[in-house]
Specification:
about 120 residues; alpha+beta; 4 helices; 3 strands; about 25% helix; globular
Amino acid sequence: MTKNINICIAHDDIQTPFYPFGDGNMLRAAFMGAHLAHMTGEEPVKRVLSMITERPAAAFGKGKAYGIQERSEANFLLFEERTIRELMLNQSVPRYVIRRGKVIAETIPAYTKWGCSLQLM
């Protein structure tokens, strides 16, 4: 919270005439918010991510029941990136979407195999 004001980032335009590029990816909204607010350092980026995770949960009254803890609903997205910087930079789709402890969506990673050899002259 900033000065006791809970600041969240969200959007609801998914391919509408008002915003035809919307796809529901909150990482894109956070990425844009980080740029517009000049919050691109390591700590500010953590705060930006909280604006699409913990802060909206608090706004909807889920504050104490939110997060990784016993008795939470186990709703989360699992990404392959190893750092917050990579997550913001790549804005990839999640590897797994978990709802109430069950996998409801899975993204199969792309796999490229080059079957030819290259000879340089």
